[in-house]
Batch of 2 targets.
Target 1
Amino acid sequence: MKLSSAFSLIFVVFLILFHTSMTFVQDMSSLIPFRSGNQWGYADQSGSLVIPAKYDEVGFFCNGLAQVKSGSQYILIDKEGKEINTFDAAIELSSFSQDYQGEGDMRLVSLYELVEVTKENKRGLYDEEGTLLIPIEYDELMPLGNDLVVAKKDNKKGIFHVKGVELVKPKYHDIYPFKDGLAKVKVDSIKSSGSIPTKEGKYEYVGKKSAKYGYIDFKGQEVIPMKYTNASDFKNGVAIVNEVLRKDGVIDKTGKVVVPLEYFSIGFVGENHLKVRDEDHWALFDRQGKQLSDFKYQDLRDVEDERIAVKYNNQWGFIDIDGKEVSKMDYEEVYDFSEGRAVVRKDNVYGYIDVDGKEMVTPQYFTALDYENGWAIVKTDPQHQGVIDLEGEEIAQMDYRRIMRQPNGTSIFIGQDRFYGLLDVNGKEIVEEKYRVIERFESDFTKVTSNKRKFGLLAQDGKEVIPTEYDYLEVIDDGPVIVGRDKDKATLFGLVGRNHGPLMPLEYEKIDAMKNGLLSVQKEGKKRLADFGGNFLGKKKETFEDIVLLNEHLSVIVENGLKGLVDASGAMVATPQFVSVTALPNGLVEVEKVDGEQGFVGVGGQLFFSGE
């Protein structure tokens, strides 16, 4: 099939744009390329010709537009076949989208109706009706959010409204994402730094870049002038800026200075505080610029449970959000609070304090981990660990070599005999040390291996729902369990439910889950489709040489070396008659017969061939 050469790049473009918030969108209503003789047009998915076959090459539709070629001209058309524009070189089409962050509710709205057109490495933007929004003259177009687009040209950036209004001509060297309603912008200027002699004995001036930062609003207006040599994004109404190195200050969204530009360094602490450093020490400020503590700390760390870790005279402790010291300042290290407790280290052993600084567990442990669900894992030495509650009482004795928390609240342990057992969500032992392996819980069940190297399935309450008697076991995501037993130097496979209820007997050579709710089941070298309930699909006893998943709707079947298609119900979409079957990024499937005739399968399973 003679498709536009630009289409061969679509899938690559899709992968690239996925990482830049521009996403190729499957246009499920797209027209299908249709051949008549050596000319191409488009048919709808009922097979009716919509755009006459009069082009030498065609491409797939992207958000209502497509590229076609006639002679030496490349033409942009809409779904009605109307020719929007002509070009003297090939163009590439890709979908352009962006997110919208609303005020207050943080809503996200995706815009998918736009088409980015690239010609000779220059980019422009069209809507689905074919209206040119941004001329094809920019090196790069990037979504800025809130209906704005950054347009880069000659290494400078400007801003368009997504509907095509130019708000800012290219003049910035960088435009950053909007934060807190404002976007940071940067310009680079060259400052002369003197002259140096050249090999010819002449002198030439050299310079260095000096950045200036300011801020713009959603209308593209500079609401804070370009006068800062460094600047942060806005966060909760303020930003950190400086005009001279090591002279940091803080401004609000009107540009008003709330902390004078005279400090060695300033950083954000939590949502509502700042840490401010003079030449030697740190102090705590609020976002309104009020100083809350003295300049006396060597370090100051983030907020957790309204507490801030501070270092004083090389020892650590905590202050509250008003700057008041709430613990002793005599720990070698302190860690974040979790469930009202923080791990502290003193004399190289670990304990816990509460938010008021009270030592709930005197430092005594070799290591100690954060609290979760009201208990924590602690070690008395490298080979012994157990579980304590919030008051420091032992829930599980220090008899375990290792305890590993699971996402469902249980914990897998390794005992002193190096086998595995299970603790419940309260830290109590519910499965003794007896398994060779307990795998990580990804759902309510997990795979276990007995000391005889047999597999079974364990529930999070510690019950073996499938006994450890199988030589093979695979848990299907949101589905049943494939099991196998070795017999006569081979493995026979069957299917059971997660409660061990039989679904398929152990008599099959292979069972594969195909990630679309179907199974490929092989017996005597032939394969059939089955659902997760163990029921065979399609015609009774209909088998194939191979079955391979194509997409969520279709699977490829192979018989006598030719390929066909079945849908997710097992119904035949196309008998084995094709030498190739290819899934396309727009949801269609391209097929080719032995005689070279090509066609498409639509997203609903309809089969269309190009022809007279």
Target 2
Amino acid sequence: MLADGSVLGVSFTVPSLMAVSGLHEADVSRLLDDLVARELLTLDVDPRSPERGQFRFLQGVVREVAYQSMAKRSRQAKHLAAARFFESLGEGELAGVLATHYLAAYRAAPAGPEAEALAAQARIALRGAADRATALHDLLGGLTYLEQALPITPDPVDQAALHERAVPLATEAAQFPRALEHARTAAAIYAELGDRLGVVRAKARQAFAQLAEHQDQAAITLLRDVLAEAGDLGPSADIALAQAELGRALMLAGQIEAVEWCDRVLDASDVATPEIVLEAMITKGTALQNVGRDVEAQVILRGGALVADATGNLFSSIRARNNLRVQLQWIDLREALALTGELLEIARKFGQRTWVLHGTAASTDMSFRLGDWDSFMEEAKAEHADASPYFQAWFDVEDALRMAYRGDPATSEATIRRLITSEGSIASKQAMTWHRAALAEAQLAQGRIDEAFATAVESWTQASEADRAFVAGLFAAAAAADMARVETARAAWRSASSGQLPLQIALERMADAFSAAIEGQWSDAQAGYVAAAQALEEVGEYVNLARLQLALGHLAGNNLGEVAAKVLEAEAFFAERGASSWVATYRASARLPKRQRGSAVAMSATNAPESLEGSREAVGGSSGSVRPTG
């Protein structure tokens, strides 16, 4: 009886045990009572338990010994009996149990026609279990069932289909190496079969997996090659899928060519599936942000989310919200953060692990800009251990950025330099942009103004979403009191971005204020400051607002009364966040315009700038080791 029960698992019901043992209910009940008395089994009588009325092994080792004691032939027969019992119940939630028993029966069967028949039944059951798990948003469960079906699937066409089907499940479950392996294997099988469109489709799915970690450069190379090789093939859904993924890769890399590839998909909407068309629209809307077509972009992305919701397209629903969030960061960080909270709620509810990682990391960025430096950091820490290298690097750079402000910029710099060459970053232009911008911040936090500006310049050419990189360069230029650098940053910003979103306006007006202050044109500096401060306040860019007040107060001294009064507020803002040492280093290292050098220009009512060399010594040279004193 113990052996029969071990076939069913850790727990089992009387009817299932009757089916496996072939005994009548009275005999089964008597034997079970005896095993309970001997403390080998226990009966669950908890009215709150979903397993109430089931018998359970008290020790796993007892079950394992009982199971291993059976001959293979007996094990096969009992698993088959169990499978047929569960199949007779016709309950969808038992799909996984059914598949497990058919697979175990096959594994216990000797080679031959009977084993082949059991393999066929197991394949059907495993696919059904994968369907059931996927419908319940158990992505890892669905993936596991598909992978269990592969070794018992002899037909290469069916093998390729299973591998291909596994790719989105693995990708959305953040199992990226598994996703890539399935995609590459599917492409190899299709190539061997001479199925050229199968190869295109499998490689498009490979790119889909790569882009989940923003590996845009690898995806661009892969897709350009596969589309060139398929250039003689006519329009098809598979070609459209590859074109849509190429558009997405180019968008992530910040290339306007993305719009062209999306339009190719839209022009072939008679062959592309609705899902592919929707994805191309979302990519196009995102890419249009890069050329200043902001209203059009927002309409497309909001519409994309509505259509995705209405059609039950979960992935596109989340992706449209995420990409709209990027635009909203230039308009209102609070709204963007709220939308990301909505995204996270959907992702967690439906098992979209990749989007959970993405939303958590994005929230750490936005909360920092808003001045809430500690929110989401615990969530990021909890996600970090099981995250892929790309998301680990994102979490790490956010932590390093806070470290740069809070008194340990040298360690911050070392961390960021490691991330720049890390596996999770080098394949993503966006990641490289963010990391280099953060590196510039860490260098500026150590008083290394010229290096910070050079690093910022290097980051400008990396990718889209480079606003942090331009901000870093602009503040480094202001710290250098160098109008030529300010204008260099402005020119680069204009060439990379157009439009009239509040953050774009803020950066322009900040440049106006810095240039005017360096030249001593106080009315222009005042006008630039007022416009920039208003825009930054509107967006919620409170960190950059405090930095603007501190930097402009240093450049202008007491010549701008409104700004001079705000310097104390900026100092308090940073002190409240444990960043007093950052302020001290900025005061010590930031330069004055040439016309003012040698004069005493107060930074605030309580703190005057020290000489550059003396103050460097006071804060520990360039080590960045000074911490807040409280």
